[in-house]
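Proteins fold reproducibly. Take a tokenised chain:

. . .
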Amino acid sequence: MPGAVLLVVATGAALIVAFLLLFCIVAPLTSPKPLALSGAHVMVTGGSSGIGKSIAIECFKQGAFITLIARNESRLLEAKKEIEKFSVNDKQVVHFISVDISKDCAHVAKVLKQAQEKLGPVDMLVNCAGTSVNGKFEDIDGSKFEQLMAVNYLGSVYPTHAVITTMKERRMGRIVFVSSQAGQIGVFGYSAYSATKFALRGLAEALQMEVKPYNIYITVAYPPDTDTPGYAEESQTKLLETKLISEASSICHPDHVARIIVKDAIQGKFFSSVGADGHMLAILTSGMSPVSSIAEALEGVIFMGFFRFISLYFIASFDSIVRRCMVQKEKSEKTD
């Protein structure tokens, strides 16, 4: 009997080793080749400020041609002038378009087609336009759920829809969806916001299956709290519970976040995360998402259990924060 058990274990181990060796051989053949940004056309939605503008600057530093898309024309003009200071050659161009990308799919397609006629087909699309609402579910007006879904989700669908056919015809391209850590784990006060960011993950996974045979790679970025104008505005009305939970991680600079997102997108990585906690979340929430290397696959298998244990500690801490806030509010109401 012990001999039979040993035989089964040895056979299983041999099969695992054989699989890993085969994966090591095949993976380099199927991994995406890095995208060269020199001379490439990079289109960035939400590019007039925050992470979007920093991504545009990072790509411009690497020799790309840039199309910025946002609604506010004056901010776009300011961003254009700022980005142009980082040119590496005199051929580079920064073009901008003032348009609401969440309203009309056909109109967005028409406008983006005009941009491609000026700077050529889009090599990399970065969907960074987004907005946030913080509040308890029952206190959020129903129209806000519709607004967030339009901007954060459809505002990524429409530009992607406008460029995907040309990318498939050329058999190359990168598409980036800028989600959020609130798109990996639901957070108190983000019932409206988190849902829209989770939706991007589902879109990205399904779309990657469709476009990978055409040498097009999708990246979903999950930045943490980042020092942007949008974050500053949101912080003014953020719930106490949300603030206390957010304090568990530090605030990042948009330039740092942008460098990581651009690097991961160029390499064709599906997940793009920032910092140790972001990396842990990426492994914990990877599920059946694509991997770009054998190292990434092994890392997930090895650390999943360990990171799950740590995550349970954080979740328990978050629950404790919410309970303490509830007790304080109840005491305050009784005092009043």
User: Anything to note?
Assistant: The longest strand covers residues 216-222. The beta strands are 41-45, 65-70, 94-98, 124-127, 173-178, 216-222, 271-273.
